[in-house]
Structure formats: structure tokens, C-alpha cells
Amino acid sequence: MTSADLTPQTPAPATAGSGPEALDAILRDNFAPWIQRLGLRVEEAGERRTVLRLPWSDELAREGGGLSGQAMMAAADTATALAVCAARGGFVPMTTVQQSTTFQRPVSGRDVLVDVRITKLGRTLAFAEVTLTAEGATEPAAHATTVYALLG
Q1: What is the pLDDT of residue 13?
Q2: Distance between CA 101 and CA 132 in Å, rounded?
Q3: 24-29 long-range contacts, Cβ below 8 Å, gap at least 24?
Q4: Half-sphere exposure of residue 144: CA atoms within 13 angstroms, side-chain side
Q5: Are 89 and 48 in contact (CB under 8 A)?
Q6: How far apart are the first and last CA of the chain?
Q7: Measured distance CA(48)–CA(109) in Å, rounded
Q8: Which of 131, 50, 38 is nearest to 85 (CA)?
Q9: Region 23-49: what's the mean pLDDT?
Q10: What are phi and psi of 150, to 5 degrees?
Q11: Residue 49 DSSP SS3
Q12: Residue spans of beta strands (DSSP E) within the chain
């Protein structure tokens, strides 16, 4: 994800707040159309933790029926951006500096819960850990670490 993915072409409304509804509005108003098509929904939003749902879709499956890694990585990246917005109390321009993802088990036919924990929120950088778990599973499907540059 680049800063262009998170910087709207036209000014976004000043969405204040950090609850699920506010983050859903930030997602709707500030993210690229292809991110919108993932169908992500904010389940929980807190000061240092945010959970999104990536709904299962056959369109996101790769050959063999497993959820594609690209979809999970995009979900992790987007969820981190929204978690930073929650921690900052509203939308702030930012860009991904680093994302490292490990895939631990396949997901097929189930939604994925994307759980982000902000580990450090500085003035110019934010760090997070992301766990992606198939709904109803006890073990994660993937784990990511992310670093964001805060631009505003």
C-alpha cells in the first residue's frame, strides 16, 4: 500500500472518533475502490486494538480453494491503517513503510478476523502486530508485523 492508497483524490470529510462506525466511514471515504471490494468490516475498535472481519469470498480464493495471501496481506495492511486512525482519534494520512507476513495454515470457506495491536505509536511512526485467524479457529492462519509513517 502506498500513500496514494490512503490519500483521497478529493478531500475526505473530517471523520472524528475511533469507534467501529467512525472507522467504517474512514474506510469508505479514504481507501481505494479495490480495497472496498474486499468487504472489510470493523468489528471492534479501541485505543490500541482493532479487529476487522474479512468476509469469505470465492473471488478471493486461489486455485485449490484457499484464501489468497494477497487478500490477507491487503486486509492486514488496511486493518493496521484503521487501527492507527483509531489510536489517533480520526483519519490521518500515512503510508506503509514495512510489512512482513508469515502464513501458517490455509483458510477456506470461512471469514477471517484481523486483529491488530498497536505496539508503539510515535509522532512519525507506528508499529503493529497483526494476527489473522479463520472464524472459529483457535490457531492463527497468518501473522504480520507492520510499520507505518504518519504523514500528517
Answers
A1: 39
A2: 10
A3: 26/82, 26/85, 26/90, 26/91, 27/78, 27/82, 29/91
A4: 27
A5: no
A6: 17
A7: 29
A8: 50
A9: 95
A10: -90, 120
A11: strand
A12: 41-45, 49-54, 94-103, 112-121, 125-134, 142-150
Three cell numbers written together for 72: 490477507
Give the sheet arrangement for strand 94-103, strand by strand: 41-45, 49-54, 112-121, 125-134, 142-150, 94-103
**Contact indicator for 25, 42 with CB cutoff of 8 Å:** no
| Strand ranges inside 3-141, DSSP E | 41-45, 49-54, 94-103, 112-121, 125-134
With CA atoms as reference, report the closest residue to 93 among 41, 34, 132, 148: 148
Q: What one-letter code names the amino acid at 27? A: L
Spatial distance between the Cα atoms of 100 and 89, rounded to a whole number of angstroms? 26
Alpha-carbon gap, residue 11 to 85, rounded angstroms: 16
Q: Whose grid coordinates read 475498535?
A: 45
Where does the pLDDT of residue 9 fall: very low under 50, low under 70, confident under 90, or very high at 90 and above? very low
For residues 123, 131, 112, 14, the Cα torsion angle rounded to the nearest 10 degrees is: -10
Q: At what angle do helices 20-30 and 69-88 cross, to 10 degrees?
A: 120
18 vs 90, higher pLDDT: 90
pLDDT at 3: 43
